[in-house]
Design goal:
This protein is mainly beta and 150 residues long. It is 4% helix and 44% strand. The chain contains one helix and nine strands. Strands 1, 4, 5, 6, 7 and 8 form a six-stranded mixed β-sheet that branches. It has a three-stranded antiparallel β-sheet with strand order 3-2-9, with no helix packed on it. The longest helix has 6 residues. This is DUF192 domain-containing protein. InterPro entries: DUF192 (IPR003795), Saro_0823-like_sf (IPR038695).
Length: 150
């Protein structure tokens, strides 16, 4: 589902197994300020967006993305990591459910968009893209930080 104007390879530090959490930090709180108190709901200005994440760590996995899946769990994310920030696009062809997408550069949110099933399109500057269930990124704003924790 993720495309770019140039071919990029996935960075090795991308989540490669379930169990890696995707954590949101509001712009007013730095990412290294402490642990999340409630791992499901979060607290204060930070919260867990996804309790488990997979990496699209090959060109095939990047091209397939969430296509042909019937649904994804409420606490799941698919993460695309690339070498360098550039304009990256997403499509929803063969994805029968809505998602929230976050475009990140060095962990900072540059764009957030809800993509509609089958016809959604999005483009933004990113070195990382995170795909989440629709509604999971509510409250995430441009300028906020997102990090990955084991």
């Amino acid at each position: 589902m993720a495309n770019s104007r140039r071919n990029g390879t996935v960075k090795s530090r991308a989540p490669d197994r379930q169990g890696v959490q995707v954590v949101h930090h509001a712009e007013s709180e730095p990412a290294d300020s402490g642990a999340v108190a409630d791992e499901t709901a979060g607290s204060g200005d930070h919260r867990v967006l996804a309790a488990s994440a997979d990496a699209a760590d090959s060109l095939l996995a990047q091209a397939r993305g969430l296509m042909f899946r019937r649904s994804i769990p409420n606490d799941y994310a698919l993460v695309f990591r690339f070498d360098g920030a550039t304009s990256r696009s997403l499509h929803m062809l063969f994805v029968p459910f809505a998602i929230d997408a976050l475009w990140l550069v060095d962990g900072e949110v540059t764009k957030r968009k809800r993509l509609r099933p089958w016809v959604g399109l999005g483009r933004g500057e990113a070195d990382t893209i995170v795909e989440l269930p629709a509604g999971a990124a509510d409250g995430v704003d441009v300028g906020d930080r997102v990090e990955f924790r084991p």
